[in-house]
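User: Here's a chain of 199 residues. Predict its fold as tokens.
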Amino acid sequence: MSDSTTHKEEMQKVQAEQREKISKLQDPERGLVLVHTGAGKGKSSSAFGVLIRALGWKQTCGVVQFIKGKWITGERRFFQDLGGVTWHTMGEGFTWDTQDRERDIAAATAAFDKACEMMKSGEYDLIVLDEINIALRYGYLSVEQVIAGLDARDKRTGVILTGRDAKPELCEYADLVTEMGEVKHPFKAGIKAQRGVDY
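Assistant: Prediction complete.
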């Protein structure tokens, strides 16, 4: 039997198995919860990629940024120029810059209040809560508070939560959890953050 015939038979078997699996899947008829976490780069970048995919399907999208503050990023510039995305940058910057726990808690609480308002509204197909896991890591928000907010969201609304050190309870709650692993990073080689790659 030739290699091409063997390959075709193998692929037909794989195809049949995949079709069988897919035939058993169901639509949950609700927006999913995705967590992008881990020490590696790409958590927010991946979330914004999903956002672009949703926009391609004419879905209504929003972003609430925790922590990052008012510094300008390429993604923020892109979506502001594109339009059609409700965007709230509500953090005050890196936690080591503010050095004021009460101010950080107030900023995170205001950002999460805005996120809850958006999630409950029924107006959004997808909302990205960018770097919310950092707010959770430092105790600016509680995991119970965040899960309660997710529970109260409109049925149509999917949510992506980004940031390293996602809480185990949040990972258990989520429909999808992706952990970005760091293999190599230019920062450790003394290379500063690059416009268009890092921000």
